[in-house]
Structures are given as structure tokens and as C-alpha cells.
Amino acid sequence: MAPRGDSWRHNEEVILCQAWITVGGDGCVGKDQKSDLLWSRVAEEYNAHKPAGCMDRTHSSCHARWKKISPACMKWRQALNKVEHFQRRSGENMEDELMNVKSTYYDSEGCDFVFEHCWQYLKNTEKFGKTPSIENTHFSVPNHVNLDDDGTPTTEDELPSSRKACPQGQKAHKLAKKKRQ
């Protein structure tokens, strides 16, 4: 067994999150990569951008740290959703809401959320981003039925408004990359 490496600093964890976002969002490779390959690429990206004076990290070291960051951030998102579901009370500001989220997280996990520095980068990703609630999803409901209609939507307005555009597929991404070269 290899000796234990240095503890992760906040700035290293931020670089790890950025590397995960970069490698995970690479349309050329897509989501079809094996775990070892993914974490080798994340470690390579991390080591290329690591802060000065910090040691290189192996793919297993990056993966092990990610297994601490990812679940904590998912639970933080759940706490955020729970607090947002109850709406802000009259007289509360964003700081009060943040305290409510911290309290909700602590109540469910028994410890404080220690990855706020990582959350700032992860909160806008597909995995950790805000999930639309049923109340926020708007569907067009007709008030009459046309028996001649074949059931296909005729305009964009009839599709759910919360639907996100799909990212470019692997083949399309590779083809576009070839055309640019």
C-alpha cells in the first residue's frame, strides 16, 4: 500500500472540481469512458493546472477525494431544494436562507458542509444543478380536444418549458472537430 499523501487544500479541491467538469463535459469522449480512464484524465488535467507548490495527485487519489466531495455536494443540493421548497419568509434575506440551508444540512448529516468552495463551481453543472420541481414545470393543457389532431405538438409552446437542450452527441462533436481542423 502506498504511503498517505498530503491533505487536500481548498485550492486543490477547486482545481479537482474544475478538472472533473472539464473532463466530464468533453463531448468527444462522452459518458462512455471507463472509470479508470475518466480518473486518469481527471488526474492529468488536475496535475496540469495544480497550484504551485502542490504535489502531483494520482488518479486513485483524485477519485478518493471526489468520493468525499460529490456526495456532500449532492446532499447540499437536497438541503437547498428543501429550503427553497418552503419559500423565503417575510423579512428573510439570502443570508437567512443560507443559514437555514446550513441548519438543514447539519440536521440530516450531523456535520457542517465543508465544500462550499467546491459548490461554487459544481452548482451549475448538470449533475449538481437545480432540478425543476413539479410546480415549476409548465405544460400546455388544451381546454378542448380536436379529434382530427394526430397528437404531435405543432409549436414549441406545447412542449414542457423546463426541457433542456441536449448536448451535442459524440459523433457530431467529433465531426465538428474534424471540420475545424
UniProtKB/TrEMBL annotation:
Its EC number is 2.5.1.18. Residues 171-181 have a biased composition (Basic residues). Keywords: Transferase. It is an enzyme of class 2 (transferase). Residues 7-70 form the Myb-like domain. GO terms for molecular function: glutathione transferase activity. Residues 139-181 are annotated as: Disordered. Residues 148-159 have a biased composition (Acidic residues). PANTHER family: GLYCINE-RICH PROTEIN-RELATED, PTHR45023. This is Putative glutathione transferase transcription factor MYB family. The lineage of its organism: Eukaryota, Viridiplantae, Streptophyta, Embryophyta, Tracheophyta.
